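#structure-requests
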Amino acid sequence: MAREFKLSLSSVLTSLNTQVSTILGSDWKELKYIYDPEKNDHRSQNNGFGVGFSGSATVPGTTKAVTYDSEIFVVLTSQFANRSSDSSQREAISTLLDKKELLDVSIFQKKLNNSAVLLVSEIGTEAPEIIGEGVVMMRFSYTIKTRNQTI
């Protein structure tokens, strides 16, 4: 009898997308372009999010199942209007960082509510970027160890 395997990488992306959407709430909308956020329509970039895959490598020394360390990321965008100072930009960045902390705690503690996730080992934050007139973007990365499981 042939064994079947439950694939983990695509399910991790689906689980992460669901968790991010739930944590951020209905005021946040999924971006159409996550790998090139500048392509998004200016109006859709306020309270925008996206989940993507950066790559993975197998973990040596594991047997009976393929184990991966995968890099996945979350992109958050927000609009701001600077008039006489950059206070609106700083406020937008602060809001994105607050949302990032909520995501980090949930992702780290709940492991995406996905049985294929063994460990969230690294969480990274890139510097904020201005990607258009009055739009700030932040990208957060996660190293997630997953294992394909026999079903």
